[in-house]
Amino acid sequence: MKExxxxxxxxxxxxxxxxxxxxxxxxxNSPMVRSKFIYQAPFTREGxxxxxxSMVETGRVVQFIICEQESHRMLGSVYIRDIDRTHHKAExxxxxxxxxxxxxxxxxxxxxxxxxxxxxxxxxxxxxxxAFADNLQAVRxxxxxxxxxxxxxxxxxxxDGEYRDIIWMAALNPGKL
Length: 177
Description:
- The protein has 177 residues and is an alpha+beta fold.
- It has helices at residues 21-29, 31-34, 45-56, 106-120, 136-145; strands at 4-6, 11-15, 62-68, 74-84, 89-96, 126-132, 148-159, 162-172.
- The chain has a single domain (4-127, 136-148), classed as Aminopeptidase (3-Layer(aba) Sandwich).
- It has 5 helices and 8 strands; from the N terminus they run E-E-H-H-H-E-E-E-H-E-H-E-E.
- A hairpin with a 2-residue loop joins strand 7 (148-159) and strand 8.
């Protein structure tokens, strides 16, 4: 696998390992991160280990850790899931777990790196995502990374008794017809 780093943002991506479990569980259970996910149930260590065993190890998910170049400190994670090798597409996800890493362009840089990985290594044609329509910071970040809005799913999910709109976005491999 090629190295995926972005010098301007000072980050690189490395494959997630079992040793990252406790950090990922803590991040996903933080109120800030959890509030941005459609799936908001609490994460457990056992649940994450099951995810690694049943999804990552089977190739249905590829998950990376976003790290600072200088300190190698873990900042968050990016992943693709529901990888469809017949139609060459997958769903993208990201979370920035470290509060001091938010709002610095790290999410945009990580999304660009992940798209490069998806198109160059996985040979995907389409990478899509779903985001809460009112998560404007994330939507702007995705647009800067190359995702395009494709649709609005009105009142698509019910979170804490409130129906929320979802934006559907995608990026297409520029190297494929």
